[in-house]
Amino acid sequence: MQVVDNLVALRTRVKNWRQHNEIVAFVPTMGNLHDGHLSLVQKAHELADRIVVSIFVNPLQFNDKNDLTAYPRTLTDDIKLLSELDCDLVFTPSDEVMYPEGMDKQTSIHVPGMEDKLCGLGRPGHFDGVATVVTKLFNMVQPDIAVFGEKDYQQLMLIKKLVQDLNLAVDIVGAPTRRDETGLALSSRNNLLTEKQRVQAPLLHEQILLLKTSIENGIDDLDVAISDAQDHLKQAGFEPEYLDVRRESDLALAQLGQDTALRILVAARLGNVRLIDNIACNLA
User: Fold this and answer.
1) Quick one: 106 and 29 in the same domain?
2) Which residues of 28-47 are buried (b: 16+ CB within 10 A; e: fewer)?
């Protein structure tokens, strides 16, 4: 496995693979890797001959400088984990490599329809930062395939729209959310939970599972069902940011009786830790 931090070395290696007609898959990350990230690499192995993983903590997508400063950097451990998974190349660019003119002068990519809903409402500028860095990474790596986790479902939809709108030559693959034995979605933020919060946290997944069952069994009033689920979360110690049912294909508001492929999405704080989750809900 090769670790590179500059564009010339990255493109030289990928060009060599291209000359041998090898399929290249790409997994972008911000490091601090856990089994959820590693499952994306495993998925990439199923689809391609060569695997590139990037590790870059992207300042553009943090609207809180304290969050950026506090984000764990575990590069040595991350590289060891990736080597054990037979990753071919790890790209570890600096801020200067990614934004040589500085972030204030960086061209920004805006994907319409994402900033005004769900995670976009509480994190202004976040998705522009994601869209910008992913577009740059796609141009740098030039992969055939890129793998993203369904845990960040809104991000996955944003990337798919980005690729479609800009006619980028990369196939976007969504990989299922990895969970621990309690059902809690794997996340780097889980390490910040106290012992007591760790016991409470799986209730987030349990509530959206109950809502899914209610919807699939037929309910008269979706708004009431959502409100009840939020109340249960509050009683369990959560501070819900949103809990919503959306059309799976584009995250438009779901219309029961018309839409059949739905996605239930939730974000809530448990103490100072922000947790997100989502599940599919099929009425077909």
Assistant:
1) yes
2) bbbbbbbebbbbbbbbbbee
> Is 31 a known ligand-binding residue?
yes
Other residues' Cβ atoms within 10 Å of the Cβ of residue 176: 12
Q: For residues 264 and 245, is the Cβ–Cβ distance under 8 A?
A: yes
Catalytic center residues: 37
Q: Are residues 34 and 158 in the same domain?
A: yes
- How far apart (Å, rounded) are the C-alpha atoms in residues 73 and 91? 15
pLDDT tens digits, 3-31: 999 999 999 999 999 999 999 999 999 99
128 labelled as ligand-binding? no
Is pTM beyond 0.90 here?
Answer: yes
* Domains: count for the chain: 2
52 and 129 part of one domain? yes
Q: Quick check: 151 and 188 in contact, CB under 8 A? A: no
d(CA 62, CA 126): 6
CATH of the domain at 160: 3.40.50.620
CA distances to 118, 206, 242, 250, 257 from 261, rounded to whole Å, are 18, 20, 20, 11, 11
252 and 167 fall within a common domain: no
20 is known to lie in a ligand binding site: no
Q: Are residues 204 and 259 in the same domain?
A: yes
